[in-house]
Amino acid sequence: MALLDVQNLRVRFETHHGVVRAVDGVSFQLEEGETLGLVGESGSGKSVTNLALLGLIPSPPGVVEADALLFEGTDLAKLSEAQMRKIRGNDISMIFQDPMTSLNPLLTIERQLTEVLCLHKKMSRREAKKKAIQGLGDVGIPSPDKRIDQYPHELSGGMRQRVMIAMGLLCEPRLLLADEPTTALDVTIQAQVLELMKDLQARTGTAIILVTHDLGVVAGMSDRIQVMYGGRLVEMAPTLDLFAQPLHPYTRGLLGSIPTLHSHPGEDLDSIPGQPPDLADMPPGCAFEPRCAWKTERCAQESPPLRSLTQPETGAKRHSACLEIETLLQTPPSSAPVTP
Predict the structure, then answer these.
(1) Does residue 200 share a domain with residue 282?
(2) Residue 40 lies in a domain
(3) Are 229 and 290 in contact (CB under 8 A)?
(4) Nearest CA among 322, 294, 296, 287 for reference residue 308
(5) Terminal C-alpha separation, the chain
């Protein structure tokens, strides 16, 4: 049985300007000890997916529906708020994207770190403080025994981010939802934090959902990658296979927009034309059709399902939501038709 089994997750926000379908029919499974990368432009539904798993979507205006949100066989969608509080921070932990709005400005770092240990691990305040200081040191905060007595506003943005990471790792959760965990960190600390997450995973079998815009990070950390666009999954594949041969035009656009070791100095990078779709006014066909170089007439009328196929060369299981998937299979990743 999978550690996490998400079936047909849908999240909508009912606003005065219409219904915004932030997540529309997302399904996936996650095994113990596996890392799943979740990539896509801002507004594609990545963070909302994680918040929905933890029951943190504000209602109203948010409405969360799913056929199943199974965590170790328990349907999270059917749990009460009291039952969810026992899971949050303990069995499922989240590293939030913005530490300035996630940390309480009125409480010291010690209070915010030790609370989760006292509540879930039944530690004394002294034991909890000792472990919290160790956790701050693990994520690269200098003089953690002094920093722990400070308030969030007394720390730099990078230090606040590291506090959030330490908080997410303290209870050694079964599932870690990491939402842009290394965005505010320099590359040295970033490598240290990623290594810390790998060590936790090796010791405890923690599964990780890693949300990031950094394709280099997701390439080095993830076993599988899911690409989201317009609130839907458009591609799912093992990491190496996705980088070797992306089977959705949007994925090819993302990979084409970053430099590689083989890029020549002064060479122009590819870019995806246009803007992401308005989630309150989605087109009838493929959401990526207005920006797609491979589009045909039927792309504007038919909404492509997420199709499953086996890649002939590797035998890997792939999924892609593209009506022209056969054409993409026969086209090298570096090739693309002229953008209309």
Answers:
(1) no
(2) yes
(3) no
(4) 322
(5) 46
Largest CA distance in the chain: 67
Distance CA 1, CA 229 (A): 28
User: Does residue 245 share a domain with residue 199?
Assistant: no
Ranges under pLDDT 70 in the chain: 184, 334-340
Please state, in angstroms and rounded to a whole number, the distance separating the CA atoms of residues 203 and 172. Answer: 9
Residues 257, 196 within the same domain: no
**Can you tell me the distance from the alpha carbon of 170 to that of 118, in angstroms, rounded to the nearest whole number?**
11
Q: Are residues 113 and 204 in the same domain?
A: yes
Compute how many other C-beta atoms are within 10 angstroms of the C-beta atom of residue 157: 13
Domain that holds residue 143: 4-222
Whether residue 276 lies inside any domain: the answer is yes
- Identify whether the C-beta of residue 249 lies closer than 8 Å to the C-beta of residue 330: no
Looking at the DSSP assignment, which residues form a beta bridge with residue 232?
229
DSSP 3-state of 144: helix
Question: 222, 249, 265: which is the final residue of a domain?
Answer: 222
Same-domain check for residues 214 and 274 = no
pLDDT in tens, 191-213: 888 888 898 899 889 999 999 88
Q: Are residues 178 and 273 in the same domain?
A: no
Query: In this predicted structure, what is the pLDDT of residue 136?
Result: 93
| CB distance 39 to 225 below 8 Å | yes
Closest CA to 170 of 192, 141, 139: 139
Structure tokens at 222: 């993830």
pLDDT at residue number 338: 43
Cβ–Cβ < 8 Å for 176, 164: no
What is the CATH classification number for the domain harbouring 63? 3.40.50.300
- For 176, how many CA atoms within 13 A lie in the half-sphere containing its CB? 30
3-state secondary structure of 21: strand
Q: Is residue 234 one of the residues assigned to a domain?
A: no
Buried b (16+ CB within 10 A) or exposed e, 8-25: ebbbbbeeeeeebbbbbb
